[in-house]
Design a protein that fits this description.
Length: about 130
């Protein structure tokens, strides 16, 4: 399963690079910055989700402590993101449509990766489990 996550991470980085390179064609700083910021936030959140799931699934001794740390981490990241987005929006650096496109990086990469590669890998995992 970790091999699949590594492949998904690599695919996510490639898709991120393509999205940022495509946004350069608009010749506007706010569009490129928004796509890059949204994609970076989405990718970082994907990494945190992976780390959180590993922590929760491996920590069978104290699930309530793991849940508390996860919630603390979530709210801390959410607050920091809200402050950063507010500062960037107040400065006029953000195009909200491009930001939404960049934030959709994770969903788009998971969907595309699954259609292209995931079914084969998933089928192999299920075949070994049966």
């Amino acid at each position: 399963m970790s091999h699949n996550l590594t492949d998904l991470r690599r695919f996510c980085v490639v898709l991120y690079a393509i999205m940022v390179a495509g946004s350069v064609l608009f010749h506007r700083f706010d569009v490129t910055f928004s796509v890059a910021l949204g994609g970076a936030v989405a990718f970082i959140n994907l990494r945190f989700l992976e780390r959180f799931l590993n922590t929760v699934l491996r920590n069978t001794d104290s699930p309530s402590a793991a849940r508390f740390l996860m919630m603390l981490s979530f709210y801390t990241r959410f607050d920091a993101l809200a402050v950063a987005l507010y500062i960037c929006a107040a400065a006029g650096w953000i195009n909200f449509a491009a930001l939404a496109f960049g934030l959709s990086l994770t969903a788009l990469s998971i969907f595309t990766w699954f259609l292209a590669f995931g079914r084969r890998s998933l089928g192999e995992d299920y075949g070994r489990a049966c």
